[in-house]
Amino acid sequence: MSYSQGPFYSNVNDSGGGGGGFISPYGSQDSPRDGSKKSSQYSLRALTILSMHNAQQAHGEANFTVDGIEIGQVTVVAQVVEDVDPQSTNILFRIDDGTARIDARHWLEQHESASDFSHITEGSYIRVMGSLKQINNKRHLSAPHVRLASPKEFLFHKAEVMLVWAQTTLPVPGQPANISHVVTAGGDTSAYTSGGLAQQAENPNYAHLPALERRILECIQSAPARDEGVPVDLIAKRLDSNATLEANELTQALDRLMDEGHIYSTIDDSHFMIA
């Protein structure tokens, strides 16, 4: 989804003299005053603050995931709920969007000063764009871009979050979701939603495979198309809504499918596509 268009994305007093609208790519702001470190490898995802707190992370160096999809840059519209805390090198905004609160820290670039943000006060609506970080088990936003927003933009963002969720989790039009009861590796049954799994389960090419491996292939086939492949945590989520599947069972099944040439890994060892 393009964030450079829409009624609320341009000419809204962009702090720091950036010219107003959405700017891409974003600075990573992994360190203060590092204006040269830019990245365009991530898309921008509209989220609520609660979704940021609930995002999953496999390990300390892994990207966060929401609904089984990796997130890089995120954007949120929220209200400043405490006095803005300006420092010599950064400014801290504590924000609330009605779902939760989070700290957003903007590191000042060489051409910026704290006075550039004096128009943002407690009660202001702001749009924050940046990346989700976690330090000492506390999450915050590293926010290269902070600007004033309006109450209307706040409502627009809520609608956009729902639209993005629907686009990333619901079946493709023309492939209605079906509830299929599938036997797990342990013999139990679980219901999960997918597009056309019942038909794919009858694929004769998979008839000789164990039940778990067939289900993995069906999950990969039915997942929304992504250039980077299907992440393993999405496969696990769709396979096992009751969390009874052991991680090593899934890993071993994926290894066997790769060895037999049914699937292959893509950008890393945790993303897969049908061969």
Q: Structural class from helices and strands?
A: alpha+beta
User: What percent of residues adopt helix (DSSP H or I)?
Assistant: 10-25%
Instruction: Spell the H/E element sequence.
Output: EEEHEEEEEEEEHEEHHEHHEE
Shape: elongated
Which consecutive residue ranges, at least 5 long each, have pLDDT under 50?
Answer: 1-42, 176-201
Integer average pLDDT:
73
Strand order within the widest sheet?
6-8-9-11-10
The whole-angstrom Rg is 22 Å
Largest sheet: 5 strands, mixed, barrel
Fraction in beta strands: 25-35%
First-last Cα distance: 28 Å
Counted by DSSP, the helix tally is 6
Structure description:
The chain is an alpha+beta fold. It has six helices and 16 strands. Strands 6-8-9-11-10 form a five-stranded mixed beta barrel. Strands 14-16-15 form a three-stranded antiparallel beta sheet. Strand 12 and strand 13 form a beta hairpin.
Write the layout of secondary structure elements.
Layout: E1 26-27, E2 38-39, E3 44-46, H1 49-54, E4 65-66, E5 69-70, E6 73-80, E7 85-86, E8 90-96, E9 101-107, E10 125-135, E11 138-148, H2 151-169, E12 177-183, E13 189-195, H3 197-200, H4 211-222, E14 230-231, H5 232-239, H6 247-259, E15 263-265, E16 271-274
Parallel strand pairs: 3-6, 9-11
Antiparallel strand pairs: 1-2, 4-5, 6-8, 6-10, 7-8, 8-9, 10-11, 12-13, 14-16, 15-16
